[in-house]
Design a protein that fits this description.
The protein has 624 residues and is of the alpha/beta class. The protein contains 21 helices and 27 strands. α3 packs across α4, α6 packs across α13 and α18 packs parallel to α19.
């Protein structure tokens, strides 16, 4: 399938394998997707390419701090290689599209194959022929709403959430600053709510367009400054509220909106402008300043977006998904009109022209990409990928073909360089759920072929060894399937999420006389080997103590998710239990543990008794 990729500030249309369907979501064949002019122009570095992206990164203090920390822990060369790889890595573009459901995952009950839908979400509603989208990010389209209109759903939800944060009352005067795409949609939603909207923009033609769509009053800042223009249109009282949908670097814009408000008014920031509030401008009028976050409640919550856990209707009336559904209803009734906002529709193959139009002197408001209608049988294996050009990859005699499932940062930065240099292995196949990742691994990292379906990799006769480097909850099912397929297996820790599954896998390996190893690398350290040399001559039981201050992880990090990651003790702490067993050189027979504050998946003091009477203690903390 075709997909838009952005790397180094440049746009490219690339061929990638289709994503697999997963539980809790659907596969959607895209008809149209909408380019978000403001957001995607910013992602391209404002037209300056890689140099602009580097300047942006340098100005980001938190990012600079991370780079400095990385240099201190990994060295300058390794850090430079990582930064270079990050900048050149293909990233998916787009977050608003419409199309038809072609496959439904497990646990999805309200969507069926053939449903016409609008989709939202960065990383899901991509500029791509086929997308996997979690069910909470999908809204059905009635027959009266076209795919062109449905593609505006996400941007409509952003505008609607801004209006909800403003909470305007019937008849209030609300100013909309910035009449780009979000501003045009916001004006129409305000009109539908019975509000008198006043539009302001730099460009007179955008003011006129908004008036043709129902704007009550409007002016350009070229003919009147913001404050005076608003006072003149509110009988000198000031606006009840201001919604800022503009973007740019004007550091004084927010303060001017405060001046345009009446006492006890409110300002809602939807767009991307500097927040440098002067206290006296907001204090004396006792103004409310509000932020509107994307499409609504549920955005940036993995439980809602990825796991399909909806918020209870009586307590959270308007979620991200319900905002999207309401935008579809407004489109169906005609209260929201988007066709006059379409300034260009380009076939996806001509996406570079579409993006080039964003940098014109009079940038468009709405730019759409359209996608070809392909029959299901167009490709024998739509989830496979082979190099675009025939490359001479010599098959080393006696080498093992390696298939890798999961291609995250750890595997790329640590294991891949080792495998690439080792004469006993050749890179036979790569599997990732992300088609762009598969393409990069094949085209740039040397894999012979790729797929988004691990079952295809396991069926490949060229693959003799399978590396399982996915997130933790997928280790057991993939490792088990690989053993059943007759492959030797290297599975990253933890081998399984439960001891029950661990026993099942161990029994299967013994039954099949297979080879399986777990990525416990601490015992491979030269320091660990030397320690064992010093301990082996000691015949009496040993006392071992391992203290780890692992540092803090954000609360929403996937490792701390009890289902996906299992917590830090299972996700990382297993390394240290393994090293104690290695040094004791005898099986463990009893374990006791205590955690601060009771039960914890992240911190513990654990004591392990071994068969020879040795005792080992692991003190694992993230807050030492």
């Amino acid at each position: 399938m075709l997909q838009i990729a952005i790397a180094g500030g440049k746009v490219e249309v690339v061929e990638v394998p289709e994503p697999p369907v997963r539980p809790g979501g659907v596969l959607v064949r895209t008809s149209h997707s909408l380019i978000s002019v403001g957001t995607e122009s910013a992602a391209l570095g404002g037209g300056g390419g890689r140099e602009n992206l580097l300047l942006k990164a340098i100005r980001n203090r938190e990012l600079v701090r991370k780079v400095v920390d990385r240099v201190s822990s990994h060295g300058l060369k390794a850090t430079a290689e990582l930064v270079r790889a990050r900048i050149s890595t293909d990233r998916a573009a787009g977050y608003s599209c419409a199309g038809v459901v072609v496959e439904v995952g497990e646990d999805v009950t309200r969507l069926r194959v053939g449903d016409r839908v609008a989709c939202c979400g960065t990383g899901y509603a991509n500029h791509a022929e086929v997308n996997f989208v979690p069910q909470n990010l999908v809204a059905k389209l009635p027959d009266a709403v076209s795919f062109v209109e449905g593609a505006f759903g996400t941007l409509g939800a952003i505008a609607l959430q801004g209006v909800r944060r403003c909470a305007p009352a019937l008849g209030e005067r609300v100013v909309v600053v910035g009449l780009g795409l979000l501003g045009q949609l916001t004006v129409q939603i305000l009109r539908a709510a019975g509000v008198v909207a006043i539009g302001v923009d730099l460009r007179p033609q955008r003011v006129e367009l908004a008036k043709s769509l129902g704007l009550a009053h409007g002016f350009s800042v070229g003919e009147r400054n913001l404050v005076e223009g608003v006072l003149e249109r509110t009988d000198g009282r000031g606006a009840d509220a201001v919604i800022v949908t503009a973007a740019g670097g004007d550091a004084g814009l927010l303060n001017r909106t405060f001046d345009a408000c009446r006492k006890k008014g409110r300002v809602v920031l939807v767009g991307d402008v500097p927040i440098r509030i002067q206290r006296d401008r907001i204090y004396k009028k006792e103004l409310d300043f509000l932020i509107s976050t994307a499409y609504g409640p549920g955005r940036y919550d993995p439980a809602y977006e990825e796991k399909g856990i909806d918020y209870p209707f009586p307590y959270v009336r308007w979620t991200l998904g319900r905002n999207l559904e309401e935008v579809v209803r407004l489109l169906e009734t005609g209260a929201l009109s988007v066709r006059p906002l379409v300034h260009g529709t380009y076939p996806v193959e001509r996406a570079s022209e579409a993006y080039a139009s964003l940098a014109s002197e009079t940038p468009p408001i709405g730019v759409l990409l359209s996608y070809p209608s392909r029959p299901e049988s167009a490709a024998a294996s739509p989830r496979s990928y082979v190099p675009r050009r025939a490359t001479a990859r010599a098959s080393q005699a006696g080498s093992f073909g390696v298939g890798v499932v999961g291609f995250g940062e750890y595997f790329r930065s640590v294991l891949l360089p080792l495998l690439s240099r080792h004469p006993g292995f050749r890179l036979a196949a790569i599997c990732s759920r992300n088609g762009l990742t598969v393409r990069r691994a094949v085209e740039k990292d040397g894999f012979a072929r790729g797929t988004t379906d691990y079952r295809e990799l396991l069926a490949d006769p060229e693959v003799g060894v399978v590396f399982v480097a996915t997130r933790h909850d997928q280790h057991y099912p993939i490792a088990r399937a690989a053993v059943e397929a007759g492959k030797a297996v290297f599975v990253e820790k933890p081998m399984t999420m439960t001891s029950h599954d661990g026993r099942l896998l161990a029994d299967l390996v013994a039954e099949r006389k297979s080879l399986l190893t777990v990525g416990f690398n601490r015992r491979c350290s030269p320091h660990a080997a030397r320690l064992k040399e010093l301990l082996l001559p000691i015949a009496s039981p040993k006392t071992l103590l391992y203290r780890i201050d692992a540092g803090a992880l954000p609360p929403d990090h996937w490792i701390r998710d009890p289902v996906e990651g299992g917590g830090r003790l299972l996700g990382e702490g297993v390394h240290f239990f393994d090293l104690l067993a290695f040094l004791a050189d005898t099986p463990p027979v009893r374990v006791a543990a205590s955690a601060p504050g009771g039960a914890s998946l992240d911190e513990a003091v654990a004591t392990v008794e071994f068969a020879d009477g040795s005792v080992g203690t692991v003190v694992y903390t993230g807050g030492g």
